Structures are given as C-alpha cells and as structure tokens.
Amino acid sequence: MKGFAMLEIGKTGWIEKDTPKCGPLDAIVKPLAVSPCTSDVHTVWEGALGDRHDMILGHEAVGEVVEVGAMVKEFKPGDKVIVPAITPDWGALESQAGYSTHSGGMLAGWKFSNFKDGVFAECFHVNEADANLALMPEGMDILDAVMLCDMAPTGFHGAELADVQLGDKVCVIGIGPVGLMGVAGAVLKGASELYAVGSRKVCADTALEFGATDIINYKEGDIVEQVLAKTGGKGVDRVIIAGGDADTMIQAVTMLKPGGVIGNVNYLGSGEFVKVPRVEWGCGMGHKTIRGGLMPGGRLRMEKLGSLVMTGRIKPSKLVTHKFNGFEHMEESLLLMKDKPRDLIKPVVLL
Description:
Blueprint: E1 2-8, E2 11-16, E3 27-34, H1 38-45, E4 55-56, E5 61-68, E6 80-83, H2 93-96, E7 124-126, H3 129-132, E8 134-135, H4 142-147, H5 151-161, E9 170-173, H6 177-188, E10 194-197, H7 201-210, E11 214-216, H8 223-230, E12 236-241, H9 248-255, E13 256-264, E14 289-292, H10 299-310, E15 320-325, H11 330-339, E16 346-350
Parallel strand pairs: 9-10, 9-12, 10-11, 12-13, 13-14, 15-16
Antiparallel strand pairs: 1-2, 1-4, 3-5, 3-7, 3-16, 5-6, 6-8
C-alpha cells in the first residue's frame, strides 16, 4: 500500500509498505477523510518524539471498515467509523488504573504515527476494534466527524483538566483548533467570562462564535497584564493551555488565582524544562494546581462527542477552513499546518 510518511527528522514523502495484518480483536480501515495536525509538525520538523524512519504519519481519520478480526463483535466490513487519535490497550494495568492513554507506558496509548504507522495510507490497522472504533452516526457531516478524532476531545480535555465550574472566569491560551474546542468545552462546562488568547482573525472570530467573551491579542501587549486588567487585578479561576511554548506556563501561573487550576493539552515539542515562576506560585504554596494530559481515546468518548454534534451542542466542522479532494494533497495540507497562513484553522483531505 501507499502511505505519506516521515522519512527522517525534517523530511517527508510517499512510501510503499506491506498492507497491515488484522489480528483477532482488530480491524483494517480505509480512510475516507483525514486531517493533518500540528502534532505531526512537531514530530517531523522538531523531532519531538525522537527520530522516526519511514513511519506513516497521521492520527485523525474517518474511514470504512474493510476487515475485522474473528473476535470483533460490534463492527463489520462496510461500517463507516470514527477513529480516535488515541487507541489504548484496554486490558493494560494503566488502563485499569484510569490512565488508558498511558497503557503500556508514557503516552503509549497514542499509537498512530508514534509507535506504529498512522492513517495517511490506503488502509490502516486499529487495535481492539470494539473498544477503539465508533460508528459514525447516520447523517453526520464527515467534516464534523473527522474533527472528533483529536481536536474536539483534546480541547475538551483541557477544560476537564482545568476543572471548569459554573461561573468560572477562564483563559484559553492558544486558539488554534484545539484551543477553539477548549473554548467550546469550557462554555459547555459553565464558564462565564472567557478570555481567548490569539492573533489570527479567523481564529478570534471562531472563538467568539464558540462563546469567548474577550479576545486577548498577544501582539498588542503582555497577555498577563491584559487579563489582569480585565479582571480587576484578580486573575482567572482556570487556564487552559492549548498553544505557546515551554515558557507559557509562566504566564498561566501568573494570571491564575490562588485555588485555581491549569489544564495543559499543549504538545511541547521543544525545550528541556517547563518553567514555573516561584513567587507567582506562592513560593510553592499558592494552591495553584497544574495538570497536563493526553486526550482520552476509545469508543465511549467518540460516541459521547458524536451525540453532542448530533444534538447541535457543538459544530466542530467550523474549524475546517481548507478542504482538499484526493490523496495527492496530503503534503500540501500538512505544510499548511506547518506554515499556518492567517486564513487557516484546520485542513481536511477527502479521499
């Protein structure tokens, strides 16, 4: 089969590989729609996961089942399915402890384009199909569906990690596609004032549509000073970090009230350390909690997100600004995520 791959750090291209084999619990899926992610950019051009050779990229796909293993009960060939970016081993001890995303080791629930070939191929393998696939609801827009693979669950996990409560003042740092879904998730969980940090107009407009009350443009001054000015010097109850770099934690801790929580879902692709400011953290005693996590995967998560779409609670397809038809546009769409032109939120390739 043909796939679009990371050849080595800083280099991508098309390769030929053997078609994956289907185990008794597994499925083989043909992609119908895929989307490149900034995570792919970190992986290829920053070497964030270390060197990878001839590894097919991609972890966001909606597809059609072409083969299932003998022990698969819930799916059959021809089913249209949403494939979460995270496909844990559900029998692992880490899963039984409540941390399925780390089944088998740190971040090991993230398999596609990390430990095994991803979804930018003519077909791909899904482990534990009954637990890691979800039927695409009839009538769902395929663009909504493909945004449920990673963008929606990751953004929502930021709101979960930050433990947003009714009436909380929330700041979302970074309003790319994940941050925008963080805005939507925080609103669903009851945020009142919601400050969205970003500079691109298309992202700012979408943040306001999703429920942000204010846009904080980092090009117009220090974001901490802007947030403190809007909150009368008190700061916010919760911060969701969905962008920035290893120094962004400094800003998050500084703008957070004592007793507040930071939820980080930003993939830190470079830097040796994450810095926490000593005084602003109350010299270590400020009751300012920092939590970071990889999005939960699995069928139940996808089904619940699908229900939110079908009932009109969320419209993640609004993230899609660039749509392509045909596999030949894979490199073009990935480079869009690398270069981030001002009119981009998220590209999708239909196959």
